[in-house]
Amino acid sequence: MAWSFDSKSPVSFQIAHILRLDIVSGKYKAGEQFPTVRQLASEASVNPNTVQKALSILENEGLLISKSTSGRFVTDNIVAIENALAIMQSEYIDRVIAEAKALGISKNKFIKYIEERNDNI
Amino acid sequence: MSTPVLECERLTKSYRAGTPVLNELDLTIPSGKIFGLLGPNGCGKSTLIKLIAGILMPNSGGIKICSEYRSESSNALISYLPERPYFSSRMKVNELLDYFEDFYEDFDKLLAYNMLRDLKIEPLAQLKTLSKGTKEKVQLVLVMARRAKLYLLDEPIGGVDPAAREYILNTIIGNYNPEASVIITTHLITDIEPALDEFAFMGGGKIIMQGNCDEVRERTGKSLDMLFKEVFRC
Amino acid sequence: MLKKCLRYDLKSVFPYWIFGAIAMLLMSIPGGLALRSQQLHTGDTDHFPWEIFVIMLVYFVGIAFLILTEILIYVRYYKHFFSDEGYLTFTLPVKRRTLFTAKVFNGVIWNALTVLVILVSVIIMFCFMPSIPSDTVPPEVTEPIISAGWIFAYILEALALIIISAFSSVLSMYLIITIGATIVRKNKVIVTIGIAYGASIVTSILSYILVFIGMLYVASAIALFPEAPSNLGLLIFLIIALVIAVSFTIAVALGLISIRIIERKLNLA
């Protein structure tokens, strides 16, 4: 099934985001071989050059290592992955807080809601 | 920098005395691109494709395929999918595959049979017994089973159902070859955008905008569809 | 490449042509029986002349077979080049002149084969007859020709004439179709028929002029060389050879015009 993308940000960024999530959530483990550009392009129904851009972004962030003949691997560096996870978590929280503010939810109300509803999930 | 797959130089084409459909059009496409040729109805997308394919003659201007001026030998490098079916209905599907294998050295018959199987098309069927949609799929198989340098797909996804549409886009992506390029004309911009890397908008017989889809989003925050609506606002 | 193109052209005509050929050959049997019966019953006033109707039928089948062949050849030419199939034809990596040449061979071969089948049918029919009537060509003309050995030359020329006439008619028809399909913009069918009619009138006029000039040439040759008439065989041979050469040249010229139009002016909508 083709991946779906929103119409705002570049598709390469959105792919990088999805793959970053896959790495930090453990779908691809540290040191594990990463799928090739072709495989990802096929799976996502996206232009291979765009996928290539997304992988380059992840390489620049240190999450992916490119070994010339063997392809790409997730980094061995667990700390790097954990850092990336931390960044994604805080970015997420920032987004939620911003949206909550827009809805007029005060900090205390927000914390109270979380405490009440978290137990139900 | 490898040689561009396509170079159009000051291409002009008019069907009869009056405004030309293409007016000194310039276009260069390097290899390894999936290129979207977009524009409103009647802007000349099909005309440009037909000129490159060689079934129309330009009034003036030149077309180069892999740095050589267009001739019958260029046809060996080009795989063209027209909007309409172009085979004699008397033939059977497998006979058509044999025909392609006979004339095109780069035709991969095994790949073609695999694709027919994926699309559940019976190779022994007579073409005239097939529905319009199935005929279009057969044509697509023939075109994509060639290892050409330039693929010209004129409205490949317009008349097919969403499942076939996805199969076609996946085939185009899966066939990707850094030595070749694909030019696609279509109205269905949202469907096609993820498969594209570059695009051009046509208007007034010329290319009025050309760029990389991803970069455009980065610069303007707009998808190709939104940009199209903006540029060609009615 | 030429062989490849020709093979597909031949294959596309064959399944329909073979029907006509078989029908023609089968008709030669009742035709032959009718001829035999007619000869046996000459002078028999009580006999109902059914043979005439059968022979007429054979004649019509022959005409229909000829027409079938022509239709098959020209429909193939038009469809393969100027209909939607042209999208496939002209995107093949084959020179347009090669595609055209294959079509010319296609036309000549099927025309020649049709004539051959008709000839075989006629021979079969004559085989049924008890005796062959001898009141055709006066022996004073045939004897010197046969004795001088010219008969073999004439047979060769007859074959060449059959092929050249097929060649000419195919090329002229191809040119007419090509003009109708490419250059003409409005009322294509009417204009094409008009061109065909006009072309046939022009060719008739031209051939009358050529024959007249030929006769003048022969007359002047006889006047200049009085011994020449005794070598009648050679004279006839040369005249026919001239006709063959001129027809061939004109036909080739027509073909070259068609090729030029297809190479430069083809615009498939």
The share of residues in extended strands of chain C comes to under 5%
Order of helices and strands of chain B: EEEHEEEHHHEHEHEEHH
What does the largest sheet of chain C look like? none
Rg over alpha carbons of chain B: 18 Å
Count of separate DSSP helical elements of chain C: 8
What is the general shape of chain C?
globular
Query: How far apart, in Å, are the first and last alpha carbons of chain B?
Result: 40 Å
Helix count from the secondary structure assignment of chain B = 8
Largest sheet of chain B: 6 strands, mixed
- Strand pairing plus helix content of chain C: what structural class? mainly alpha
Shape of chain B: globular
Quaternary state of this entry equals: heterotrimer
Low-confidence stretches of chain B: none
How would you characterize the overall build of this protein?
The complex is a heterotrimer of chains A (121), B (234) and C (269). Chain A has 121 residues and is mainly alpha-helical. Chain A folds into 2 domains: 11-77, Arc Repressor Mutant, subunit A; 79-118. Chain A has helices at residues 11-24, 37-44, 48-60, 78-102, 107-118, and strands spanning 64-67, 71-74. A two-stranded antiparallel ribbon of chain A has the order 1-2. In chain A, a hairpin with a 3-residue loop joins strand 1 and strand 2. In chain A, helix 1 packs across helix 3 (48-60) and helix 1 crosses helix 4 (78-102). Chain A is elongated, with a radius of gyration of 17 Å. Chain B is built from 8 helices and 10 strands. Chain B is an alpha/beta fold and 234 residues long. Chain B has a domain at 78-147. The model of chain B has no long low-confidence stretch (mean pLDDT 91). Chain C is mainly α and 269 residues long. Chain C folds into 2 domains: 1-135, no CATH class; 137-269, no CATH class. Chain C is built from 8 helices and no strands. Chain C has helices spanning 2-40, 50-82, 86-89, 96-127, 139-147, 150-182, 188-224, 232-264. The radius of gyration of chain C is 23 Å and the shape is globular. The two termini of chain C are 26 Å apart. The model of chain C has no long low-confidence stretch (mean pLDDT 82). The B-C interface holds B 15-16, 50, 53-57, 72-73, 75-76, 78, 80, 82, 84-88, 90, 99, 102-104 and C 4, 8, 12, 79-80, 84-88, 90-96, 185, 264-268.
